[in-house]
Design goal:
It is a single chain. By secondary structure, this protein is an alpha+beta fold. The protein is 34% helix and 19% strand. The strands form nine sheets. Strands 8, 9, 10, 11, 12, 13 and 16 form a seven-stranded mixed β-sheet that branches. The chain has a four-stranded parallel β-sheet with strand order 2-1-24-25, covered by helices on one side. Helix 21 packs parallel to helix 23 and helix 22 runs antiparallel to helix 23. It starts with 6 loop residues before the first helix and ends with a strand.
C-alpha cells in the first residue's frame, strides 16, 4: 500500500481503466430513465483555459451523479471547429486550416482526458468534418424548401480587417467587430438569410416554458426579440404611392406633422424632386458609411434632408412633408415612421432642428401645452385633444384608453389594423470566407437558385486554396470549383461561394450526438427524440442571445419538418461565472502591469511611473498576464485538486477568483482523505449488515448522524440549483467527523469511510476509485448506487440548548432532543450556567424556543 498521495500516478492509471471498462459509454437500455448532460462544445484553439475546466467539471459532476442515481446518461463532447481563427492561422503560418484545427483538437482532447471528464468519445462530432457539415448543408436545404432560407440585397456589417460580413449580434456597442475589433463599415451585398422572424412569436411565448433557465437569460432573449404591439397604418403620397408605418402609439396619429424614411427606402428615389436630388444622394452616401449603432445613438445631433414630396395623413387628410434621416433603419419595422414631435423626444429634436410644426394631442391634466412653446416632448400621461373621435379619452395603452380606441377606429375606417412588431431581424448567415460549410446552392441563369441534390452532398471544401486574407472569399477565385452544370436543366451555372455563419453548426450539434455515427440520416428521429430535450445544459452567459436563441429556432423548424417532437432543446440551463485572475492595474493610466515586472507584491507599483497599483480580479487573459494554465495546476496538484478547487471556490453561477492558497487548501484536504482511508484500510472491521440505531453507543449514534446528514445535504446540493461549493463543504465536515470519531473500530465508522468515498466520487473521481480499491473492492466506486439518507439516523438524541439571560447568551448545554418546553426550562434552571446567572435574581418571565434556547427575563 502506498504511503502517500501521488496524483500523477493514480490519475493516469484510472483514466486508462475507465477507457478499458467503457465507463462513459452511453447505454441505450430503456429500463433506466435518460439524462442528457451537455456542456457547450469549445472552439479548438489548442489549449484549455480555466473557463473550460470550470464548465466541463460542472457538467461532469452532474453526469457522474446521475449515473450513480440509476440514470442512463449521455455526456458527449465535440468541436465547434469552423471559423475565422483557423483561416487566419492558415494565412499567418502557411498551413491549411484543417491541419491547424485537427492538431488543436488532438491536443485539447488529451487535456480534457487528463481532467478525468467522463465524455462518451464514441459520439464525438467535429463541425468542420465533411461527415458533419454534409448534414449542416442538408438542414440548410430543409430551411430552403420551407421558405425559411432566402437571398436578398442587403446593407450589411462589413469587417474591413477580416473581410467578411457580420451579423448584427457580432457588432459590439461601440460599432466594432466582436472578433477583430475593427470599426464596422456598411456595405450593400446580396446575402443569404434565415427567416427567424417567422418564429418570433413562438420564440417569445415559449420562454415561459423554460422554468429551468435563469430569469436573466430569459429576459435577455425576450428583450432581443422585442415584441411591440400597436398598429400598421398606410400613408399615401401625393403621387399615389403607399408608405406603410408601424406605430406603438396610433392614438397620436393626429399629431403627426411629418414623415421620415430610411435613406435606403425604395421610394426615396421616386419621391425626390429634382431640386433635392443632389442633397439626397450625398446624404444617402454618408448614411451608408455609418453603422446602425452610430445612426441610432442617443444624444447625437439629428440630421436629415427633405425629399421635396408630401404625404397625406390618413386620419385628418393633412399634407405633411416626407424627409429622410439616418436614424430610421430600413431593416427595422417598415423603414418609415410617422413623426409626432410633441410626444416623442427624438422627433421633437428633429422638428426643432429643421423648424417643423409641433402639434399637441396629449394634454396633461391641469395644464395647457402649446406646440410652439414646448421645450421637450411630453411623453407622460394626459387626456387626448385635437384628435377627433379620441378627444377626452385618457392617453395610454390600458384597456379603455386611447391606444385601444385608436386601433378600433383605424380598423373601422379601413385606414389601419392592430398588429405586433418585433425587434428581432432575420438572421444573416452568409460569410465571405473559406473555412465554413459551403452553402449548397447552384445559381443557374435559367432556373435561378437551385438546391444541390441530397445525393451530391456534402459540397466539400476544395483543398487547392490560396489564403491571402484580403478581398473576396478564396472560394470565389476557384473557377474549377465554381463552374458546374445546373442540376435541373444542365445549363452552365455557378456554385454559391459564400459559406455559412458558424453559429449554424452549433445550432444543431446537440441533435447529432444521440446518433453521431449515422451516415444515412442527419439523425434517426427515434433516437433523437429518445434523448431530447437536453436535461442539463452548461455554458457561459455570453451565449444567452446568439447560440441559445438560434438553437431554439432550429429545434422548432426541425420539429415542424417532422424530425423532432420537442418544442425546446434545453430543459435546464446553468450559466457558470467567469474565472478571474489577480490583476495589477495602474488606476491613473488604466495600464496593466505584468507580474514579472513587480518586485514588491505587498506594495505593488508601476515600474514606469512609480504609481501604486490596484490589485483587482478580472477575467483571465493573455494580455493581462493573469491566467493560470490548467496543465500547470494538474502537473503540480493533480486533476482532482483542480476539480475540487473549481467547485468549492464559488457557487457555479458566480465569478470565481483564483487563489493559489485555496488550491493548496483543496490539495491538503485530499491528502487528509488519503491518510484517513489508507490508515483505516488496514483494519479488519468492514461495513456489512444493516446497522440498528437502537444498539449503538452514543459516539456511534453521533457519527452515524453526521454520515447521513452528509448524504442528505450533498444530495440536495446536487439537485435543484447545484450548490457544488456547499456540497464540498459537507464532504469536509464528514471527513472531520470521521477523523474525530471515538469509534474507529465500529461498523458505523466503516460505513462512514465508504460513504465519504461514494459522495466524493463525482468530485474527485481518481482519488475516490483508488481508495475504493484500497478497501478491497474489485469494482469501481463509480458503479455504486448513490446513497439515500436514513431518516432515523438523522434524528438527534440530544440537542445543544442555548441559555440566555435578558437576551444575552450565557452558555450552552446538551439536553434530550424530545424534551418538552417545561423540561427545557427545568434543564436550564438547574444547569450550572442557570444557577450561576440566576442566583439572587427575580425571574419575571421565561421564553422558551423549542429545540433552540431558553431566555430568562430577570429583575
Amino acid at each position: 500500500m502506498e504511503s502517500r498521495y501521488n496524483p500523477a500516478e493514480i490519475e493516469a492509471k484510472w483514466q486508462q481503466d475507465w477507457v478499458a471498462r467503457g465507463f462513459a459509454k452511453t447505454s441505450e437500455a430503456t429500463d433506466k430513465p435518460k439524462f442528457y448532460a451537455l456542456s457547450m462544445f469549445p472552439y479548438p484553439s489548442g489549449n484549455l483555459h480555466m473557463g473550460h475546466v470550470r464548465v466541463y467539471t460542472i457538467a461532469d459532476v452532474i453526469a457522474r451523479v446521475r449515473r450513480m442515481q440509476g440514470f442512463r446518461v449521455l455526456n458527449p463532447m465535440g468541436w465547434d471547429a469552423f471559423g475565422l481563427p483557423a483561416e487566419n492561422a492558415a494565412i499567418e503560418r502557411g498551413i491549411h486550416p484543417a491541419q491547424w484545427t485537427y492538431q488543436n483538437i488532438a491536443q485539447m482532447r488529451q487535456q480534457l482526458d487528463q481532467l478525468g471528464i467522463s465524455f462518451d468519445w464514441e459520439r464525438e462530432v467535429t463541425t468542420c468534418a465533411p461527415d458533419y457539415y454534409r448534414w449542416t448543408q442538408w438542414i440548410f436545404l430543409q430551411f430552403f424548401q420551407a421558405g425559411l432560407a432566402y437571398q436578398k440585397e442587403a446593407t450589411v456589417n462589413w469587417d474591413p480587417i477580416d473581410q467578411t460580413v457580420l451579423a448584427n449580434e457580432q457588432v459590439d456597442s461601440e460599432g466594432r467587430s466582436w472578433r477583430s475589433g475593427a470599426k464596422v463599415e456598411r456595405k450593400q451585398l446580396r446575402q443569404w438569410f434565415f427567416k427567424i422572424t417567422d418564429y418570433a412569436d413562438q420564440l417569445l411565448t415559449d420562454l415561459d416554458k423554460l422554468t429551468g433557465w435563469p430569469e436573466k437569460v430569459r429576459l435577455m432573449q425576450a428583450n432581443w426579440i422585442g415584441k411591440s404591439t400597436g398598429a400598421q397604418v398606410t400613408f399615401t403620397t401625393e403621387g399615389g404611392d403607399e408608405i406603410v408605418v408601424f406605430t406603438t402609439r396610433p392614438d397620436t396619429l393626429w399629431g403627426a406633422t411629418f414623415m421620415v424614411l430610411s435613406p435606403e427606402h425604395p421610394l426615396v428615389e421616386k419621391l425626390t424632386t429634382p431640386e433635392q436630388a443632389s442633397a439626397i444622394a450625398t446624404y444617402q452616401e454618408a448614411a451608408a458609411a455609418k453603422s446602425d449603432i452610430d445612426r441610432t445613438a442617443e444624444g447625437r445631433e439629428k440630421t436629415g434632408i427633405w425629399t421635396g414630396s408630401y404625404a397625406i395623413n390618413p386620419v385628418n387628410d393633412e399634407r405633411i412633408p416626407i424627409w429622410i434621416a439616418d436614424y430610421v433603419l430600413m431593416d427595422y419595422g417598415t423603414g418609415a415612421i410617422m413623426a409626432v414631435p410633441a410626444h416623442d423626444q427624438r422627433d421633437f429634436e428633429f422638428a426643432r432642428q429643421f423648424n417643423l410644426p409641433v402639434k399637441v394631442v396629449v394634454q396633461p391634466t391641469g395644464e395647457s401645452l402649446e406646440g410652439d412653446t414646448l421645450t421637450a416632448a411630453h411623453t407622460g400621461e394626459g387626456v387626448m385633444v385635437n384628435s377627433a373621435a379620441l378627444n377626452g379619452l385618457p392617453a395610454g395603452k390600458a384597456p379603455g384608453q386611447s391606444v385601444e380606441a385608436a386601433v378600433q377606429w383605424l380598423e373601422q375606417q379601413g385606414k389601419g389594423k392592430g398588429t405586433a412588431n418585433y425587434r428581432l431581424r432575420d438572421w444573416l448567415i452568409s460569410r465571405q470566407r473559406y473555412w465554413g460549410a459551403p452553402i449548397p446552392i447552384i445559381h443557374c441563369p435559367q432556373c435561378g437558385a437551385v438546391p444541390v441534390p441530397d445525393a451530391d452532398l456534402p459540397v466539400t471544401l476544395p483543398e487547392d486554396v490560396e489564403f491571402s486574407g484580403r478581398g473576396a472569399s478564396p472560394l470565389a477565385k476557384l473557377s474549377n470549383w465554381i463552374n458546374v452544370p445546373c442540376p435541373t436543366c444542365g445549363t452552365p451555372a455557378k456554385r454559391e461561394t459564400d459559406t455559412m455563419d458558424t453559429f449554424i453548426d452549433s445550432s444543431w450539434y446537440f441533435l447529432r450526438y444521440p446518433d453521431a455515427q449515422n451516415d444515412q440520416q442527419v439523425f434517426d428521429p427515434a433516437k433523437a427524440n429518445a434523448w431530447m430535450p437536453v436535461d442539463q445544459y452548461v455554458g457561459g452567459i455570453e451565449h444567452a442571445i446568439l447560440h441559445l436563441l438560434y438553437s431554439r429556432f432550429f429545434t422548432k423548424v426541425l420539429r415542424d419538418r417532422g424530425l423532432l417532437n420537442c418544442d425546446e432543446p434545453f430543459q435546464r440551463l446553468l450559466t457558470q461565472g467567469m474565472v478571474q485572475g489577480k490583476t495589477y492595474k495602474n488606476p491613473r493610466t488604466g495600464k496593466y502591469v505584468l507580474p514579472m515586472h513587480i518586485t514588491d507584491f505587498a506594495h505593488p507599483t508601476d515600474p514606469d511611473t512609480g504609481d501604486a497599483l490596484e490589485v483587482v480580479y478580472e477575467k483571465m487573459s493573455k494580455s493581462k498576464s493573469n491566467g493560470v494554465a490548467p496543465s500547470d495546476v494538474v502537473d503540480k496538484y493533480g486533476a482532482d485538486t483542480a476539480r475540487m478547487f473549481i467547485l468549492f471556490k464559488a457557487p457555479p453561477e458566480k465569478d470565481l477568483e483564483w487563489e493559489d492558497a485555496d488550491v493548496e487548501g483543496q490539495f491538503r484536504f485530499l491528502n487528509r482523505v488519503w491518510r484517513l482511508v489508507t490508515e483505516y484500510a488496514a483494519t479488519a472491521v468492514k461495513a456489512g449488515a444493516a446497522i440498528a440505531s437502537a444498539t449503538l453507543a452514543k459516539p456511534e449514534k453521533e457519527l452515524r448522524r453526521s454520515i447521513h446528514i452528509a448524504i442528505k445535504e450533498v444530495t440536495e446540493d446536487l439537485a435543484g440549483d447545484y450548490q457544488f461549493n456547499t456540497a464540498v463543504s459537507e464532504l469536509m465536515k464528514l471527513s472531520n467527523a470521521l477523523s474525530d470519531a471515538a469509534c474507529k473500530d465500529s461498523p458505523v465508522y466503516a460505513e462512514g469511510i465508504q460513504t465519504l468515498l461514494i459522495l466524493l466520487a463525482p468530485f474527485a473521481p481518481h482519488l475516490a476509485d483508488e481508495l475504493w480499491h484500497h478497501l478491497g473492492h474489485a469494482d469501481s466506486v463509480h458503479l455504486q448506487s448513490w446513497l439515500t439518507a436514513d431518516p432515523a439516523a438523522l434524528v438527534a438524541d440530544e440537542i445543544n440548548l442555548v441559555i440566555q439571560v435578558l437576551g444575552k447568551t450565557r452558555g450552552m448545554i446538551q439536553v434530550p432532543a424530545q424534551s418538552t418546553q417545561a423540561e427545557l426550562e427545568q434543564y436550564a434552571r438547574e444547569s450550572d450556567i442557570g444557577q450561576r446567572y440566576l442566583e439572587g435574581k427575580e425571574i419575571k418571565k421565561v421564553i422558551v424556543v423549542p429545540g433552540k434556547l431558553v431566555n430568562f427575563v430577570v429583575a
